[in-house]
Design goal:
CATH topology: TIM Barrel
Strand content: 5-15%
Distance between the termini: 44 Å
Shape: globular
Number of domains: 1
Order of helices and strands: EHHEHEHEHEHEHHEHHHHEHH
Structural class: alpha/beta
Helix content: 40-55%
Oligomer: single chain
Number of strands: 8
Largest sheet: 8 strands, parallel, barrel
Radius of gyration: 19 Å
Number of helices: 14
Length: 311
Amino acid sequence: MNINDPAAVIGTNAWGGKMYGKAIRGSYVEDEVIIEAMEEAKRRDIAVFDLARDYGFGKAQKMIGHFGTSDVIISSKYTPFTHYKKDCVRRSLLKDLDDFKRDYVDIYWLHLPTDIEEHLNEIIELYKEGKIKNVGVSNFTLEECERSKAILEAHGIPLYGVQNHYSIICREWERNGLLKWCKDNGISFWGWAVLEEGLLVDPRVRKKSPMKFTFNRKVRKLEPVYSVMIEIASSHNIKVPQVAMAFCASKGVVPMVGCRKPSQVNDLADASGIKLTEEEIRRLEKAADSANVKIMGADIFRAFVLKERKK
């Protein structure tokens, strides 16, 4: 498993207790099944797990620490919901490490571009102490990524990656040059919500979820996209959601997908190795552009970014 070139990443935002699973995710999965999924991820060489303190109402990180993190890659984040305060990142990371039962995290992301320099400077301190092995940024624009790269490189630290929303129907980071910039600079681009929170799936399989109910009208507008996805899935002998994963992998984006079951891990591992043809990619993009549906949106968290304080 190569941390510098992961084939796929397993999201843990769907992990949690019964109330969270049923109310937010539509179903609950027993811990024993998630442990089996982790073991399958190790066998399939995609044991990279992405976490944050609020995932599963705060339970996801404690779960993975209890399950065991000695032989997996852990990706975690600091989310600055307030302006920078001294040691705010340190306190959060130490809580993470306590949850993970480890003394370091493999990849640590600044989750929002608030007070970029101040927060990154503290991350740099923790990096130099060995508590962080790689540094990334999440939900940043191209300009903010360039600025972050310069701050890190001034201390001899490379920018490991950018973690932003990307899917068949959300390709703004490709259009505005961020994806190309990452490729040109050897920076990994991780795409979260590649399934648009469960909406880019097979419409013929009836599953109830809060997201599908909330976006019911938009789901109907996605019919042209579903039609192309179903055709491509049939030609590759894969499942419809795997087309969305393979699309990202084919575009040089590391697909991040929430997995709670071994079967989901296998679907992700298989899809990440499928190369769609240029014609298949063109058809998917044409259908998506024609549908013109926005579910999550590339800038969904921009409202939480605080304006820089005057210095």
